[in-house]
Amino acid sequence: MRNVMKLLREPLLHFLVIGAVLFGVYQWATGDETAPDEIVVSAGQIASLQAIFSQTWQRRPTAKETEALVDEYIRDDVFYREGIAMGLDRDDAIVRRRIRQKMEFVADLAADVQPTDAELRAFVADHPDRFSGKPSVSFTQVYFPSGAQAANEVEVERLRLALDAGTTDASTAGSPLLAGSDFRDLTKSEVAQTFGADFAAWIDRATPGTWQGPVISGYGTHLVRVSERVEARELPFEQVRDAARREWLHARKVAANDALYKKLRSRYVIKVEKMPGASTETIVGVAE
């Protein structure tokens, strides 16, 4: 009995039982001919409670555990019905939001169809910007700190010419930078995260193959040589299939939710009361 009581205190069990209760009450409210003051726990509902228990705990419930599940089901049902009768669900933002989520979940279930490769290929073709390789840049920088140790413009220009002529090794020039000196295949946003938006905008215009600068970042002053620039490119379908599938499913669910909302909204005449300063009230929906 102690184990049964411990089990009944599990929040997960309460959540599962409440879900079963809501399903049962929905059936009761949408066509069950049971009297309003009568609660019938059918064999099917008991089997559902047992199945949920088995999925959660990886074993079948004992007779006492099944009796406890049914008691909890009835308790929830009683409080739920009495709460509805008292109007406790009205004007409750949390209840309204939860019911909306349940309605949207119904639409999600209807949209939960796995796409074929042909559908995914068509989706990728319709949204090439989402699934193409982003432009990237590779570069080397030589760093000069700001402040008392800052190099003057003449020294920086002299070093730039030496680097461009190949008479000075970039790895020994300037000062060490914790972020590093060589950067490979960085997107513009990644450059901006490290060096700032102004530096990223500058390097986006820099000509590859020569040492250029000086350019300022949040760290200080830099000389920069862009070694490679890769433009946006189409990626192999196999590389983007998983991402395309996730976005396809998301788009389908959004469309299903919008379609459900539009259909349900058409049943209502919706009036928005006149706001201060407005001349008339607005009718924003008419039931068909």
TrEMBL record:
Question: One GO molecular function term?
Answer: peptidyl-prolyl cis-trans isomerase activity
Please list every transmembrane segment annotated in the UniProt record, as residue ranges. 12-29
Pfam families from the entry?
Rotamase_2 (PF13145)
InterPro entries registered for this protein in UniProt: PPIase_dom_sf, PPIase_PpiC
* Domain (PpiC) ranges: 115-242
State the source organism's domain of life. Answer: Bacteria
Assigned keywords, A-Z: Isomerase, Membrane, Transmembrane, Transmembrane helix
Question: What name does this protein carry?
Answer: Parvulin-like PPIase
